[in-house]
Amino acid sequence: MEASTPQSLGRKPRVLSIASPSYAGDDFVSKFQSTCDLHIILPSDRKGTVQAISDARKSDGPFDGVLIGMGNGGYERFDEGLLGPLLPELKIVASVNAGYSEFDMEWFNKNKIAVTNTVDAVAEPTADIAIFLMLGALRDTSRLEAEVRNGGWRGGSKLPLLDPKGRTLGIIGMGKIGKHVARKSQVFGMKVQYYNRTQLSSEEESRLSVEYAGSLEALLNTSDVVSINCPLTPETRGLIGAEEFKKMRDGVILVNTGRGAVVDEAAFIEALESGKVARAGLDVFDGEPNVNPYFRNSTQCVVQPHMGSWTDVAWGNAYREAMNNITSFAETGKAVSQVNSF
């Protein structure tokens, strides 16, 4: 690690894993332990996890790196209150997740701590859940499922239901996940356009069979389904608000597997109530796990509890990718996928 390589430390770097990395596989974990000393704690709620980190620092530290495992929930945010006890030795925090909105980047940058995410591991399963949510919203599955469970049959939906074939999908955020969504949606005969802060090369657009919308407004004006696949950043927070909903086609389908706060919640509910948005497929929510009761109760929404990437294959790949970030940083001073700079 920069200024803390095994040679300069006189020992292997110590890594604290918050959750067991067993999904990476025994052989991979053993290989990791040949480079780093690994210490594991199991997360609980915020208070319990803070205490466990402090206790681990006293008994097994200091720690040069932290591995943030899957299944965390209830102890975020990742900030001074959680990781402060590991200063000043802490140099890298590697997350198995793609998103990093839960990290207090100002604090990490101030303390020159590298933060890394996973780029490849969770991209395809997240795209899979986006397709699932899109199809569910098009076919009004939440309303129809509720109808059957309540003893009814084929009631409550506006017929005929919607087919993806021939419809235009507009993707906001054409990173790894967005590209998988584009590829998978074309199996259903959809035309795909996208909006991204940087346009893809003409060669990649041709390979993916996608068109650049030119602007967010143009994409919203001309898409039958809008899929949000961008990360949450200061620039994307509230990206879709009342004015953006006005620019969408009447009866649009909205899918969000990015982050809940990319969409203004009050404007979103108003758009659902007015019919501007016919239905939605949601894996993410602003303020989760405290989900607005409107989304819990509305049969216009196909909902999932932000578990789009929680598959056995994805977990294994995510742990390996995160641990590779740590070993790369330990050996070269550079991580594979660092998301902050200082």
Can you describe what's shown?
There is one protein chain. With 342 residues, the chain is of the alpha/beta class. The chain folds into two domains: 6-121 and 312-332, 3-Layer(aba) Sandwich (Rossmann fold), CATH 3.40.50; 123-303, 3-Layer(aba) Sandwich (Rossmann fold), CATH 3.40.50. 37% of the residues lie in helices and 15% in strands. It has 14 helices and twelve strands. The chain has helices at 6-9, 26-33, 46-60, 80-83, 105-110, 123-138, 141-149, 176-185, 202-208, 216-222, 242-247, 265-274, 293-297, 312-332; strands at residues 14-18, 37-41, 65-68, 92-95, 114-116, 168-172, 191-195, 210-212, 225-228, 252-256, 277-282, 301-303. The strands form two sheets. It has a seven-stranded parallel sheet with strand order 8-7-6-9-10-11-12, sandwiched between helices. A five-stranded parallel sheet has the order 2-1-3-4-5, sandwiched between helices. The longest helix has 21 residues, at 312-332. It is elongated, with a radius of gyration of 22 Å.
